[in-house]
């Protein structure tokens, strides 16, 4: 049996689908990325991005590393 993805766990908790969770994350990333607040923009600059905006997976990985103090 495979382990549930983070999207599946969140979807289960909030009674929605993993696809909807990921879609909502994209919306939140876009809103955050467009935020003109200098402190918010500085935080985005700390991320290593493969393209203009991070994917939900990149944001999750960044958050996990930050929480672990890496």
TrEMBL record:
Residue intervals of the Sporulation initiation factor Spo0A C-terminal domain: 4-67
- What is the superkingdom listed in this entry's lineage? Bacteria
Which Pfam families does this chain map to?
Spo0A_C
**Annotated InterPro entries:** Sig_transdc_resp-reg_C-effctor, Spo0A_C, WH-like_DNA-bd_sf
Q: Which UniProt keywords apply?
A: Initiation factor, Protein biosynthesis
Task: Give the GO molecular function terms.
Answer: calcium ion binding; DNA binding; DNA-binding transcription factor activity; translation initiation factor activity
Q: Name one GO biological process term.
A: regulation of sporulation resulting in formation of a cellular spore
Alphabetical GO CC annotations of the entry are: cytoplasm
**Can you name this protein?**
Sporulation initiation factor Spo0A
């Amino acid at each position: 049996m495979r382990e549930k993805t983070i999207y599946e766990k969140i979807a289960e908790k909030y009674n929605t689908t993993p696809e909807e969770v990921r879609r909502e994350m994209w919306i939140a990333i876009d809103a955050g990325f467009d935020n003109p607040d200098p402190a918010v923009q500085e935080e985005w600059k700390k991320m290593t991005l493969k393209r203009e905006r991070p994917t939900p997976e990149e944001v999750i990985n960044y958050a996990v590393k930050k929480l672990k103090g890496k």
